[in-house]
């Protein structure tokens, strides 16, 4: 996916195919071994991606704080921020519950890389859909998740989209049920009173 050796021992490969446990393990192992700042930052970025997609928000918060510290204090922080900052900012906004701000990711061109533009477009669409979902805009979220599932059925993001779709369908049907039952209860009590 990213121009490196795509083997099972590669954290990028394992992330891309949704083998998050192994990707996390490989990143943490690499972080213990490396003395190179670019490798450290990239590993933390992939940890953030894995933690977000597995909904491990406590660890996501820690990694994002570490990345933000590097962006502001390292001599190459500006370069790292340019490469990883947009997604990191999205995660921070997401963790802060600012889903409206998160929705801006759909129109960002910084996520596009000519070589992998389709992948980044799908990824930004996925993040946009997650923001819609968490902002309780379920119909729009469902439409975005369905588009992802149809346009790239082989990507792990398609599987994640299907999980969100199932959850959106359950949330929406339980919401409708709650509304209907509370309405009936109110009418019954009004009628019998």
Distance between the termini: 67 Å
The tally of strands reads 0
Which descriptor suits the 3D outline? globular
| Model regions low in confidence, pLDDT < 50 over at least 5 residues | 1-6, 174-193
Order of helices and strands: HHHHHHHHH
- Averaged pLDDT: 81
Identify the quaternary structure here.
Answer: single chain
**Tally of separate helices:** 9
Percent range of helical residues: over 70%
Main sheet: strands, sense, barrel:
none
Using only CA atoms, what is the Rg? 20 Å
**Beta-strand content bin:** under 5%
Category by helix and strand content: mainly alpha
Helices and strands in order, then pairings?
Blueprint: H1 11-16, H2 20-33, H3 37-53, H4 57-73, H5 77-95, H6 99-102, H7 117-134, H8 138-151, H9 156-192
Helix pairs in contact: 2-3, 3-4, 3-5, 4-5, 7-8, 7-9, 8-9
